[in-house]
Each structure stands twice: as C-alpha cells, then as structure tokens.
Amino acid sequence: MSASQTSSHVPSEPSESSDIPTLLVKIFGKDRPGITAGLFDTLAAYSVDVVDIEQVVTRGRMVLCALVTAPPRGLDGDLRATVHSWAESMKMQAEIISGLGDNRPRGLGRSLVTVLGHPLTAEATAAIAARITRSGGNIDRIFRLAKYPVTAVEFAVSGVETEPLRTALVTDAAVLGVDVAVVAAGLHRRAQRLVVMDVDSTLIQDEVIELFAAHAGCEEEVAEVTAAAMRGELDFEQSLHARVALLGGLDASVVDKVRSEVRLTPGARTLIRTLKRLGFQVGVVSGGFTQVTDDLKERLGLDFAQANTLEIVDGKLTGRVTGEIVDRAGKARLLRRFAAEAGVPLSQTVAIGDGANDLDMLNAAGLGVAFNAKPVVREAAHTAVNVPFLDTVLYLLGVTREEVEAADAHEEV
Ligand SMILES: [Mg+2]
Questions:
Q1: What is the per-residue pLDDT across 207-231, written as a single tens digit (0 to 9) for each?
Q2: Which one is catalytic: 179, 200, 354, 391?
Q3: How far is the CA of 286 from the centre of ligand 1 (A)?
C-alpha cells in the first residue's frame, strides 16, 4: 500500500474539502441579542455546514462572517433570498458571495505583533501595517488588547519569519513614537511561566542607593556614579563599591525609612497580581540591596528576590557589601538559577529591566523587555516599552485589559 493510499483513509484531512463550493455570508449592522442565532437558524433550513465563523463588535456595530458549505443543487437562489429577507427584517445588511473552499493556507512564519500607543495614531498604524506588508507578511487578524492605560492592538502576521519582522518594526517604532513587540506565535507563548524583573527604575520608580545617599547627604556624588554605570561607562562592581563606601557610618535605622520611601511603578501591583493568577512565578534581581528587595518580596508575594547586602555592624552601615555581588553577569546567572528552581526552561522566561546591567539577563530570557530604558538597552533588547506603566507588559503576553479587570472584579466579590 502506498503512502498516499494510507493517508486517504485519515478522516480529518482538510485537503478533500479545499475546492468544494462555499458561501461567504456577511452580516453588518447594530449589535443586539439574537443576530447570530437568527442567521444560523435561517441557514439551518438549507442543511449547510459551518466551515468558519468570525464575529467582531466595534462601538455597537457587529460584523458577522459565516463561511458555510453551499446548499444542495438548485437551492442557492432560495437561500440568498431567505437570508436577505431575514436580514432586512432585523435591519441588518447582508452580503453573500459564492466561492470555493476555505481561506488560503497561511504562509510560513507566524508572529504576533503588539503595538502600544499613547495615543495610537492612524499615522503610526498605517506605517506599521505598510512595513508588515513590505516585509512580505500578511495580516491575518487584528485584535484590541487594551484601551487603558494605553491603546494596545495585536496583529497576527504570517508569511515572514519573526526575526526580520522584529528588526524592521522595532526600528520604525522608535521613529513613530509607539512601542512594538514581535514574538513568534505558538504554544510557547501561552507557556511562559517565569517573569524576572530588575528593581530600581523598573519595579520601583527610585534608585535605592540614591534614597540611602539622601540620608547620608551624598546624593549628588552617588547619582553621578549611578548614571555613568547605567550608561555602561563604568564597571558596575567598582561603581557599587564606590557608592556604598559613601554610605559608611550611616545609622541602620535608615533602612526602615528607605523602605517606606520606595515608590512602586504604576501598574506594578496589577502586573504581579495578574501574573500570579495566571500561574507565573515572579522574581526580582537587583544591583541594589536585599534590605529593600526582601521587603518587596514579602509585600508583593514574590517567589524570588536577590540583591547585594549592605553590611551592618553595631547598628551602622560599614560602607561595604557582603556576599555574592549581583552585577550584569550576576543578574543573568540569577535568571538561570530562578528558572531552574521554578522548573521553567529559559525560553519560557520573561525578563524586564532598564539598565545596561540588565542586558545579559534580557538577552538570556525567552522575551527580554526594555522598560523605559536607556537607548543602549532599548536597542539591544527584544522589545521595548516606553510608557510608564508596568502592567502594559501583560499585553505583550497576550493578556487583555478586560481579562485583567474581570479577574480583579471576580476577586472582590
Ligand atoms: Mg534598573
């Protein structure tokens, strides 16, 4: 028996149905209960089968597209007349187009392009869509993920590989003033299970060492060294020691003061709460200090936290750190360690950070997100978010604002 004979017995092979006559029935008009049931009730009289259905509602107007098998010979005209007459009675518009088969098979290479705008302009949307087309991609589907605090839409694109599409779109995004994330479509996206975040200027709005420095009266000196380190101009470990030394002699009671001064980034709680509900594990790695990250871990219910530790002797900061130094390489190492402990492959991790010392971690993760990052980081990361809301990262994972709010509302009941 030949291979082709064998496969002809597989009942679910779609190739057989690819050139059967089909009817595309499009209904457009004011959305109200009963339209979908009414259309299919009307079609049911002709014993047709459903091949595909898509329905969208935008500001109260619905477009319902039903692709059905053509009715038995001779009944086509009758079906058309009945559907039009039903549509008219419902004050809807109907269009019926005869054809063959289903959608054309989608091209190889499937990607999801998430566009975040604040606002999302028609000009930027046109430019993104044109770039997708010029890259050889076809837009199969467009879907709104969120209208608040940003407008977020997702384009499902086929026919072009993810990497070249990302390169092309990320370059455009910076010019257009929108954020664009391009990820490969597929099961792995639903399986991302560990998110690791930087702390200073990512999870929180502050640089913790600057909060300590304010109490030590050496704010300006420390801020200068921090900025140079984050621009990648200074070795992180040297700059860490130099800055911590400036804190020597400070009373240990400032630790509590600094903890109370830390301001979470808008959307931080929503992001973490939603990720936990989705079954993600969430961790932080910081070039800052365990004196603050341990507190954040406790307050936010994080699974992992690691940072440098300020040495305290006789109730005073010594101006030294103890233990393993968390620097640029250390952050990537900790991402791997957390992933191993969580039982999650690196390809299913998401890392978020803003500084040069986050780059190794962002590149090691399955998805690296530069969050309001310095240009050097933004250019090297998979994707960049430049709006100041941390929960917008959820949209990059395909979670909609409605889902977030519905989950919150459910919890409150
Ligand atoms: Mg940072």
A1: 999 999 999 999 999 988 878 877 7
A2: 200
A3: 8
**pTM, full prediction:** 0.84
Task: Please identify, in words, the CATH class of the domain defined by 110-187.
Answer: alpha beta
Q: How far is the CA of 56 from the centre of ligand 1 (A)?
A: 41
What does the alpha-carbon distance between residue 67 and residue 51 come to, in Å, rounded to a whole number? 5
As a dihedral over the C-alpha atoms of residue 158, residue 160, residue 166, residue 172, rounded to 10 degrees, the angle is -90
Per-residue pLDDT averaged across 41-49, rounded?
A: 95
Give the strand pairing for 110-117 and 179-184: antiparallel
Q: Where are the beta strands (DSSP E) in 216-358?
A: 281-289, 304-313, 316-322, 349-353
Is 393 within 8 Å of 385 (Cβ atoms)?
A: yes
Tell me what pLDDT residue 17 has.
53
Residue 11: is its pLDDT beyond 60?
Answer: no
Please check whether the two domains, 16-100 and 195-381, share a CATH topology.
no
Is 31 noted as a catalytic residue in this protein? no
Q: Return the bridge partners of 284, or none.
A: 197, 305
Domain segments of the chain as ranges = 16-100, 110-187, 195-381
Distance CA 149, CA 339 (A): 30
- Residue 158 in contact with residue 107, Cβ under 8 Å? yes
What is the pLDDT confidence band of residue 5, given thresholds at 50, 70 and 90? very low
CB atoms within 10 A of CB 325: 15
Selected catalytic residue, list 179, 198, 206, 360: 198
- Using CA atoms, how far apart are residues 24 and 32, in angstroms rounded to an integer? 21
Fold of 16-100: Alpha-Beta Plaits (3.30.70)
Beta strands in 171-313 (DSSP E): 179-184, 194-197, 281-289, 304-313
Residue among 323, 327, 331 at smallest CA distance from 304: 331
**266 neighbors 389 (Cβ within 8 angstroms):** yes
Average pLDDT over residues 251-259: 97
Active site residue 198: yes
Indicate whether 7 pLDDT > 50. no
